[in-house]
Amino acid sequence: MDHAQLKALAAVVREGSFEKAAAALHVTPSAISQRIKALENRIGRLLLQRGTPTVATPDGQILVQLAEQTALLEHDALERLGVQDEARTHASISVAVNHDSLATWFLDAMVLFAARTTATLDLQSEDQDHTISLLRQGAVLAAVTARDEPVQGCRIHPLGSMAYAPTCSPAFHERYFSRGVNAASLAQAPVLVFNRKDAMQARFVRKIIGDAPWNPPVWWLPSARAFVRAALAGLGWTMNPLPLVQDHLDRGELVVLRTRMREEAPLFWQHWRMRSALMDQLTDAVLEAAARFTRSARRG
What ranges do the domains of the chain cover? Predict the structure, then answer.
């Protein structure tokens, strides 16, 4: 297959439009359109669903994955050949990371990776239960996921787990939970929820009220660190990652709703199977950073 056509397809899916893909590849939108059309004619199938954003069809996802893997292997080959920096293809690995890992330990993995390579990462932040979808679609080459079953064609590495606890400010607890954490109080107390995919708060509540209706006031707040600030400010209660709030709990700035009702979210690193030195380096950095984080969390 024509490398330029595959590269154009991957750019359109990554950037979301023909215009942005053209800017990223330093060509005209017309050139991108011609390359996509030629590739679709060659394959005999529709590869893109035009829209806002433009996304790959199931057939297109297969070729996007091929394009991303090809770019990575090309970088490895030029590295082994010792091609000069100015002629070497710049490498950027597409990775999906859950929000809380990005707010806690994953930056350490990025630092380790940067110290060992000249490549960069193209990160997409998503809920840990949904990063795996990006991996299946071929939109990313690797992901931090909550699933212990490998995607077909991928390798999986356990990373340990992230501990969560239901937390709120002391004043909020006094206002809403002074008579206990039960169906009545949970129905009245505002809750902080990351987005419509975030089911962690609901899972905690179901352990207390079962299948009874639960329709509390909701603050939709798509930021892990803003979650902590909002809880400290008394806006609502939420399931916060313990590494982000342990200091606040120790100082009494936050309290837990129920001390023994924590939730452990196991995390895994999955990446497409390929003989790539660059992917091996990234995997080593991720495993090392996750191990440091897990040891630190256990000591805490």
Answer: 1-89, 91-300
Integer Cα distance of 16 and 33 in angstroms: 13
Residue 189: CB atoms within 10 Å: 19
DSSP β-ladder status, 55-56 and 218-220:
unpaired
Q: Provide the pLDDT for residue 196.
A: 86
For 20, half-sphere exposure in the C-beta direction (CA atoms, 13 angstrom radius) is 11
We find that the CATH architecture of domain 1-89 is: Orthogonal Bundle (1.10)
Over residues 172-205, the pLDDT tens digits come to 999 999 999 999 999 999 999 988 888 899 999 9
**Could you say which of 3.40.50.20, 3.40.190.290, 2.60.40.10, 3.30.40.10 is the CATH number of the domain covering 91-300?**
3.40.190.290
Task: Tell me if 76 sits within 8 A of 277, measured CB to CB.
Answer: yes
Secondary structure element (H or E) that encloses residue 95, with its range:
strand 92-98
Q: For helices 224-232 and 242-250, what crossing angle results, to 10°?
A: 20
Residue 86 DSSP code: G
User: What band does 13 get if pLDDT is binned at 50, 70 and 90?
Assistant: confident
Distance, in Å, from the CA atom of 105 to the CA atom of 181, rounded to the nearest integer, reads 32
Rounded Cα distance between 43 and 22, Å, is 22
Q: Render pLDDT for 67-102 as a digit per residue (tens, 0 to 9).
A: 888 888 887 777 777 775 554 456 788 899 998 899
